[in-house]
Design goal:
Layout (H helix, E strand, L loop, with lengths): L1 H12 L1 H32 L4 H13 L1 H12 L3 H26 L6 H25 L1 E2 L1 H24 L16 H32 L4 H11 L3 H12 L3 H26 L2 E2 L5 E2 L2 E2 H24 L4 H20 L1
Antiparallel strand pairs: 1-2, 3-4
Helix pairs in contact: 1-2, 1-8, 2-3, 2-8, 2-10, 3-8, 3-10, 3-11, 4-5, 4-11, 5-10, 5-11, 5-12, 5-13, 6-7, 6-11, 6-12, 7-11, 8-9, 10-11, 12-13
Amino acid sequence: MLEFVSNWANSTFGLAGSIVLFVIGFIALIKGGDWFVDGSVGIAKKFRIPELLIGATVVSIGTTLPEVMVSATSAAKGVSSIAYGNAIGSVICNTALIAALTVAIRPALVNKKALTLPVVCFFIAALFYAGVAYFAREFTRPVGIILLVMFAAYMVLTVIHAKKHPEDAEAEEGSEKELGAGKSVLLIILGAALIAVGANFLVDNGTVIARSFGVPETVIALTFVALGTSLPELVTAITSLVKGHGALSLGNVIGANIFNLVLVSGMAITIKPFAVPAEKLIAGMNASLVVDIPVMLLVMALLTLPAVFTGRLRRWQGVVLLAIYAGFVAFQFIG
């Protein structure tokens, strides 16, 4: 439906129609992120659940919707390279660009206890995912089902942890009025819908605008497809940062990364299993196994491990991660 609207606007009004929808998509993302953060913080305060844990669950599900839609559709159409690359690329983008920007701009203290669970769950999922890629070289349906089970287990463990450790709740003082549970849930639902609509309009119409100015297809794919599906995480992270909820921003990124591996990949693999793509080689070796997966593990380790042990994020982490992301993007262009 959203693609139909974009095509109709472009065919009826030309480039002007795409520009209008692009702007509408950007506004929808901003407002959707604002409502989503407000609703999530409202739930966190209402039920005394740590903001980091709320960010790692319900916020992350909403902001991962574009990745879910892109990967599921790609898998159904047999385009395995997009389904595979979308998950890994989004983790790298979320960590080394989105989280890195927030850390570089405003380093913050974090709750080590609340951070430990999502970090441990991520690396368990990532090592399983990497093990399958390196040793089996193909993702079968049982692997997809295992990943989806990991997703369910993570959600259950998160809720159990929140109930067992209410002392981890981060009471942040501020002038914000506490919202009721009903209104908070409504804001989350409306925010998620706006985020999904905004991301689609931005990606579809941004692609049309880029082509009209002669931007190469490879550049379009790298920016508007890979980065486009991560726009909700970026908007939510910036909105959280502006509102002073750094824990929610970090939790959202870590949670989104977990969901990219276990929910996004699990769903795509279960729909249609595929082999590890080997379209790009380095010295005769699969570039994904030599560069993409190692970079994914490296950037997450740089972001989370110092925070787990010291209880704070430092500006140098953001700067180093941004440098790694710049190098990773440059490699994609050079390759």
